[in-house]
Design a protein that fits this description.
This protein is an alpha+beta fold.
Length: about 140
Amino acid sequence: MSGVSSCWRAALSRISHRLRRDDGAVSVEAVLWLPVFIAFFALLADATLILSGRNQALRLIQDANRGLSVGYFQSESEAEAFIRGRLDSLSPNATIDSVVNNRIITTNVVMPSSDLIATGLLDAFATIDVRVGAQHYAEFP
């Protein structure tokens, strides 16, 4: 058993010796890769915030449609005001459109992704519009 532990000890010693080198090769490599990692994490953060905003908007649309369906809201404008009141902190530039046609309630929200992103380091997401919509059958006569 001591042969195995001495083998592991020697391997760990070699690895730790490699990590403690002072020739600067690791520093140069880290400086070269650091912008790539920062861009990747910025992309990841922005994509996550966009998807989270989309999910929050979808939940608000479903709640408003359900409220309009059961008569809690008396008109489409009340449902839109409900969505607007809760969506302003997330996306102040969002456009909301709610229509009742043949007892089908259709609500669509368009949010500019520039309202949702946090870092803004990558312009790829800044010009995208996030569109969310839902339909609900009206239960009122």
